[in-house]
Specification:
By secondary structure, the protein is α/β, with parallel strands linked by helices. The protein contains eleven helices and ten strands. The chain has a ten-stranded mixed beta sheet with strand order 2-3-4-1-5-6-7-8-9-10, with helices on both faces. A hairpin with a 7-residue loop joins strand 3 and strand 4.
Length: 310
């Protein structure tokens, strides 16, 4: 990270439990930056080009990028520039990607590394990821299904349990806990009045039920992760929140052969969709840099890069 000017080295933290879709999002982000035409574009080739290209190659072949092992890669730096008039930015986008396994470890152990603490600074934004239909998405529990799931009204604490055990904490509890970690870190390292931008990113948006798509990702979170939704609503003075629904292919490459054939016959570099409500209405944009640009404070509320009204 450059020490010359914090404005020229901004960061966006990617946080999510395992299988939250961060790797595929980062791969699609690189394709969008490389192609240009969005709010953000590449300014030069990154040192991590091989890592980014490997993930992008999967998407270009009609495959989803595989899960990245937690000890392989957790930080990417990309020289980027802004294309929006009045919001000029030329510098390095630092993308610390905390592997999902470490997200759960931080939740259980109540501490994170100094490296992550040092990523918190003025101008830093955050994207929290959750993937629709993921096997790692642990649904909220109630008093009725707790006994069936755990054998007792409430799960007993058991630090010795392996992460593969069924007693994983509900995803919304982990994400709310992380938001509290982040708030404390920003207060201590920046100030208590600083409102960091936090985007709630719902990945695999194409898999959302049709009757839930009309309300956008905010409505999906309210319906499926109510604790997270309530935290966002009651802590608007602590963070600046926005919701994004992201599909890196705009369809199912795994279970829909007809869609995959259509995807490959077109231009896979231009695939993907971002659904948001930055202008007050649910809209769809082909600009896959939009969530990151918003987290950096570079996105206009009225949308950019081909945003269309739904």
């Amino acid at each position: 990270m450059s020490n010359e000017n914090p404005e020229r080295s901004r960061s966006v933290l990617l946080v999510g439990v395992p299988d939250a879709g961060k790797t595929n999002f980062l791969s699609r982000l690189w394709l969008a930056l490389d192609l240009g035409g969005g709010i953000l574009a590449k300014a030069a080739l990154p040192a991590d080009l091989d890592y980014l290209k490997a993930g992008a190659d999967h998407l270009l072949k009609g495959e989803f990028a595989p899960h990245t092992p937690h000890d392989v890669h957790d930080r990417t730096e990309i020289p980027v520039k802004s294309t929006s008039a009045g919001h000029e930015f030329l510098g390095t986008l630092v993308v610390p990607d905390l592997p999902g396994e470490q997200v759960l470890s931080v939740f259980r152990n109540r501490q994170w590394s100094d490296d992550w603490e040092n990523t918190i600074h003025p101008g830093c934004g955050c994207l929290l990821f959750v993937r629709i239909d993921s096997k790692e998405l642990i649904a909220p529990l109630d008093w009725l299904n707790c006994p069936a799931h755990f054998g007792s009204p409430l799960p007993a604490a058991s630090p010795q349990k392996d992460e593969t055990d069924k007693a994983k904490p509900p995803t919304q509890v982990v994400l709310v806990d992380w938001l509290q970690f982040l708030r404390k870190a920003f207060t201590e390292r920046v100030s208590g009045t600083y409102r960091p931008r936090v985007g709630i990113v719902v990945t695999a948006w194409d898999l959302a039920p049709n009757d839930q798509k009309a309300g956008g990702p905010e409505a999906w979170i309210a319906s499926n992760l109510p604790l997270l939704s309530q935290y966002v609503q009651t802590n608007d003075d602590e963070f600046e929140f926005a919701y994004f629904g992201v599909s890196v292919a705009s369809g199912d490459l795994l279970a829909d052969p007809a869609f995959k054939a259509s995807y490959l016959s077109g231009d896979p570099r231009k695939a993907g969709e971002v659904v948001h409500s930055l202008s007050g209405k649910v809209e769809s944009s082909g600009d896959m840099t939009l969530p990151v640009a918003w987290a950096l404070g570079l996105a206009h509320p009225t949308g950019h890069g081909g945003t269309q009204r739904r």
